[in-house]
Specification:
about 180 residues; mainly beta; 11 strands; about 5% helix; about 30% strand
């Protein structure tokens, strides 16, 4: 099952193409040598080092307050627009837990989690659990409380943030001891 977002881009392919183009340069095709023909010098200039631009960052991690302390959810699909106007989108497969790609949040059913959202504030919030087929609408705010309803498995929080996009964050609920 794919995550409900349908837009995606290939940022890596674009960056690779830019790096290739940046490395392409011309010379006049002449090769010169210096010295007595001992091979100690060729007169060629070294190949310039091409540095790819840094990766474009997605949304900031989402902090979650638990009864045991703070945890973080990681970016997981949707689209995010940087202040400079660059848009990064992803459409990952629905996660399974446990996995090394997602942080673990230890909690039992009934425990309260508080999601601390980045600024600017979201206008829509939906939480997905289990197989991701049924959204749980949450009231948008800077901090949103949710009582855990699942024993374990993935949770994905999707937000609509005006001017920034519709980012999502994911983590795995793991039962306490």
């Amino acid at each position: 099952m794919r995550w409900p977002t349908t837009r995606s881009t290939s940022l890596a392919a674009g960056l690779a193409a830019l790096a290739l183009l940046a490395g392409c340069g011309g010379d006049d095709g002449r090769v010169t040598t210096t010295g007595t023909g001992t091979g100690t010098g060729t007169g060629l200039e070294p190949i310039p080092t091409v540095t790819a631009p840094p990766p474009v960052a997605g949304p900031p991690p989402l902090r979650v307050k638990t009864e045991l302390g703070d945890a973080q959810m990681v970016s997981f699909g949707g689209c995010w627009t940087t202040p400079g106007g660059t848009q990064v989108c992803g459409d990952p497969d629905w996660p399974s837990c446990p996995t090394t790609g997602l942080p673990d949040i230890p909690a039992n059913p009934g425990d309260e989690l508080t999601f601390v959202l980045p600024s600017p504030a979201a206008t829509e919030l939906e939480l997905y659990t289990g197989d991701g087929s049924e959204p749980i609408p949450l009231e948008p705010a800077d901090e949103v409380d949710w009582n855990v309803e699942v024993a374990e498995g993935p949770i994905v929080l999707r937000a609509v943030i005006p001017g920034r996009g519709d980012p999502s964050w994911a983590a795995c609920i793991l039962p306490l001891g």
